[in-house]
Structure formats: structure tokens, C-alpha cells
Amino acid sequence: MKNFSLGLSLLLGLGLSVVGCGDSGSGSSACSGGQVDCDGVCIDPIMPTLSAIQVDIFEGRGCASGSCHDNDLPQASLDLSSAAASEANLVGINSVQLTEMLRVAPSDSGSSYLMNKILGVDMALGTLRMPPNDQGIVLCEPEINAIRQWIDDGANAP
Predict the structure, then answer these.
(1) What is the pTM for the complete model shown?
(2) DSSP state of 42
(3) HEC states along 53-102?
(4) Sequence-ordered list of residues with C-beta below 8 angstroms from that of 148, at least 6 positions apart, any chain
(5) Continuous segment of H or E residues that includes residue 2
(6) Residue 143 and residue 43: Cα distance in Å, rounded?
(7) Using an 8 Å Cβ cutoff, are 37 and 46 in contact?
(8) Is 12 a residue whose pLDDT tops 60?
(9) Which residues contact 3 (CB under 8 A, 6 or more apart)?
(10) How far is CA 32 from CA 38, 63, 96, in A?
């Protein structure tokens, strides 16, 4: 019985340390050093600037990669291969899927098709949420909030 209790204590201790940066169900994050919880992983906060979003999300999450939104054959004619390309192809540009909506309406994330695609709401029939769930990539709240804030701040570069 003593070994069982010791084993259980070790497992619980390991389980608690595995949770680490993740949400333990209490609604609070165990991230430290100014980091934020990104679906169980501690990350540095993402500044709501195009240059940070470009590096941390568009490039870091694979949006600007080979079969998606690179500069060779970008899906939906949306090249996100660099900050300059992202700005030129997002800000004030009509969506090719819902032509009555801008991809990014400066200062209005609620009217920006990019946010609809990220949130999976009010999208063109037959289109996918971005990033597509079949690739196992889902943006976390801090990432989504950085994009939303960048748009609401006017969607300026850098």
C-alpha cells in the first residue's frame, strides 16, 4: 500500500508538471516571465503589428508556406509570403470569395473577411476556416486577438 501511495503521488506530481503552461481548468495560466497561454503552450505575447503577425503567425503557423499562401500559387490569390505582400493583398482589398467584403477593413475587424475566416463565421459557401483544421493548426486566442487588434488599430504596416 505504501508503494501504491508513493506511485500515485509521483503520478499526480508528474501530471501537474505536465500541465505546466496549459489551462488546468481553473481559468488561470501558469505561464511566467510575461508569456501568455496559447492552448497549453506558453508563448511570448504577439504585438498587434503586421511585422509581428507576419513572423509569428503567417510564417510561424505555416500560412505563408508552399501549398497555402506563398508567392508561387497562393490559394484565393492571397500571397502572405512577406509583410509587404501581406499588406498589399489584405488591407483594403476585396475578398475573392465574398466580393462585397474587404479582406481587411482597416479599423473594423468585425467587417474584415480575414477575421471571419479565422473565426469560421459568415464565410462563402464551400470554403474552409483558416487555418484549415485538417492540418491540425488552430490559432489560439492571443494570436487571434493580435490580428483583431492590428485591424482595429488601423491595419498599418509594419
Answers:
(1) 0.77
(2) E
(3) HHHHHHHCCCCCCCCCCCCCCCHHHCCCCCHHHHHHHHECCECCCCCCCE
(4) 48, 109, 115
(5) helix 2-19
(6) 10
(7) no
(8) no
(9) none
(10) 13, 28, 42
